[in-house]
From TrEMBL:
Protein name as catalogued: Shikimate 5-dehydrogenase
Record's signal peptide: none
Keyword line: Amino-acid biosynthesis, Aromatic amino acid biosynthesis, Oxidoreductase
Organism: Chitinophaga cymbidii
Gene Ontology terms: biological process: aromatic amino acid family biosynthetic process; chorismate biosynthetic process; shikimate metabolic process
An annotated GO cellular component: cytosol
Keyword Ribonucleoprotein attached: no
Domain Shikimate dehydrogenase substrate binding N-terminal: 6-88
Length: 244
């Protein structure tokens, strides 16, 4: 029996287990199971592999995406650049870390891109923003980062003018603003400058239409939430675990 799973703590709301259990059933994939491993300390990571010799791959969620790295033998190019791992594969006795958030985001964004979407505003400067930046680099899209905390190369929300909005028709929210239960919240950008050339992408997927998306849609912009990204990053993990 091939075993896969998810590590994090706590794991009360795991998308992954439900997704993979349903996938195995629906696609007739036999001899595989997916389990949650809510380990309270990353120090238990090596023990997990010893206790479960049939374990072939893991997804990694909060709070272990960075601290798992010293336990791995190698990293993919994306995981190395981002400094975060959300997928691990054991192959030939070696553990390799990957970042499938990049793949999920890129694959969900690509079909929506129009010729004008050559510059992006990235709202937020956390871990999710790093994956978004790497994917945009792969797509040849330049970006400006917007953050409440000033750091190298970012601008503040109050600096976003009509000129900046016009020059950046792709706007990506990587912050948790607007996520359930705080559904009335939205990133503080000047929504009145949005038009039908804009594409607003929200990494939040609960609710299905955030305040950020509603504001864009009301002005004719295309909008997208993060649900498909979640599915595609899980599918990308499955691809990695099954690569020859």
């Amino acid at each position: 029996m091939r075993l896969f799973g998810l590590i994090g703590f706590p794991l009360s709301h795991s998308f992954s287990k439900g997704f993979f259990t349903e996938k195995f059933e629906k696609e007739g994939i036999t001899g595989c199971r997916y389990e949650n491993f809510p380990i309270p300390d990353i120090g238990q990571f090596p023990l997990l592999w010893k206790e479960h010799p049939q374990l072939e791959g893991l997804n990694v969620t909060i709070p272990y995406k960075q601290v798992v790295i010293p336990f791995l033998d190698e990293l993919s190019e994306a995981a190395q650049a981002i400094g975060a791992v959300n997928c691990v594969r054991l192959k030939d006795g070696r553990l390799k870390g990957h970042n499938t958030d990049v793949t999920g985001f890129r694959r969900s964004l690509e079909p929506l891109l129009k010729p004008q979407h050559t510059k992006a505003l990235i709202l937020g400067a956390g871990g999710a923003a790093k994956a978004v930046k790497f994917a945009l680099q792969q797509l040849g899209i330049t970006y400006t980062e917007v953050s409440r905390k000033y750091c190298n190369g970012t601008i503040g929300y109050e600096a976003i003018s009509k000129e900046i909005m016009d020059a950046h028709p792709l706007i990506i929210n990587t912050t948790p603003l607007g996520m359930y239960p705080n559904v009335a919240e939205a990133p503080p950008i000047p929504y009145h400058f949005i038009n039908e050339d804009h594409l607003l992408y929200d990494l939040v997927y609960n609710p299905a239409e955030t305040q950020f998306m509603q504001q864009g849609a009301a002005r004719g912009a295309a909008v997208k939430n993060g649900h498909e990204m979640l599915i595609l990053q899980a599918e990308a993990s499955w691809e990695i675990w099954n690569e020859k």
